[in-house]
């Protein structure tokens, strides 16, 4: 099967520059917690940790002391194991995944309240496209007062091509988030859909269309395996870059064949991708639970014991625990 280059965001191959605080507040984030794919079509590498740890994920990233991390993991295990039989079933893991995903949803809602206030300067409960545009351009280094004056007087704005392209894409997203009747004014709920499309079925469909548009090479609005695994544009200059490319293909092939292509016909439709992207899909959560169990289920009993989770802690938490077996017996 041929694998060829496609135009794409190269975020998998390079460090992303840190955005300014203002820009983070008003730009739709590429990364959505608890969603399997980034907005630019890359796989979410932290998905397993996000749906297992929820808001506690940062604690494991910041605290590298194995003993403390073991204790935290043991507490999580006891919370997932609701029938206290010392093992986690797929149904118990499914319930936990849904609960942690909902945590991310609530976190996005709370953050949105602050972000909405930042772009609603007159506090009237609605943000116009022009108000947002002024704040966005100010975050890009333009003079806010000058931009506001030019927009008020319908004067031409001198904007570089790259910024204009971003603005055009944002305006498309703004239109989609604007519930009927369309007035280009977003209230707080609509602004949440604009920043976090996973909160709105209509916006989720729009995000799927954008991803398929970026990956679809023959224009049939469906994805073949070769389209899904084709590498981002970039020359492989050394072994490290080659390894990244190899991992890209391997990970995406596995996800396409085992998860996204639900009927295994070699084609991913918009409907299949939408179901895959929906973070509150209970069927997906159960499949995810079974996959997570399979990774660490060494005794093949289709459940997870504490020792198995501790041994495979890096998969569940991003934190590798040493001497897991000896320490778990000490702490019991």
What would you note in describing this structure?
This protein is mostly helical. Among the domains are: 126-185, no CATH class; 197-275, Recoverin, domain 1. The chain contains 17 helices and four strands. The chain has a two-stranded antiparallel sheet with strand order 1-2. It has a two-stranded antiparallel sheet with strand order 3-4. Helix 2 (47-53) crosses helix 5 (90-119) and helix 8 packs across helix 9 (188-195). The longest helix has 30 residues, at 90-119. The N and C termini lie far apart (52 Å). The model is unreliable at 1-22 (pLDDT under 50). Belongs to the CREC family. It is found in: Golgi apparatus lumen. Residues 13-24 have a biased composition (Basic and acidic residues). InterPro entries: CAB45_EFh, EF-hand-dom_pair, EF_Hand_1_Ca_BS, EF_hand_dom.
Any chance you could write out the topology, listing elements then pairs?
Layout: H1 21-26, H2 47-53, H3 57-62, H4 66-80, H5 90-119, E1 127-128, H6 129-139, H7 144-152, H8 161-177, E2 185-186, H9 188-195, H10 201-215, E3 223-224, H11 225-229, H12 239-260, E4 267-268, H13 270-277, H14 282-296, H15 306-311, H16 313-317, H17 324-331
Antiparallel strand pairs: 1-2, 3-4
Helix pairs in contact: 2-5, 5-9, 5-14, 6-7, 8-9, 10-13
Domain EF-hand: 68-103, 107-142, 203-238, 248-283
Keywords: Calcium, Glycoprotein, Golgi apparatus, Metal-binding, Repeat, Signal
Main location: Golgi
In CATH, what is the class of the domain at 197-275? Mainly Alpha
Main sheet: strand order? 1-2
CA(first)-CA(last) distance = 52 Å
The assigned CATH architecture of the domain at 197-275 is: Orthogonal Bundle
Say what the CATH topology of the domain at 197-275 is.
Answer: Recoverin, domain 1
Approximately how much helix is present in the residues?
A: 55-70%
> What is the N-to-C order of secondary-structure elements (H for helix, E for strand)?
HHHHHEHHHEHHEHHEHHHHH
Multimeric state: single chain
Low confidence ranges: 1-22
Radius of gyration computed on alpha carbons: 22 Å
User: How would you describe the shape?
Assistant: globular
Outline the biggest β-sheet.
2 strands, antiparallel
Q: Which secondary-structure class do the elements indicate?
A: mainly alpha
* Number of discrete helical segments: 17
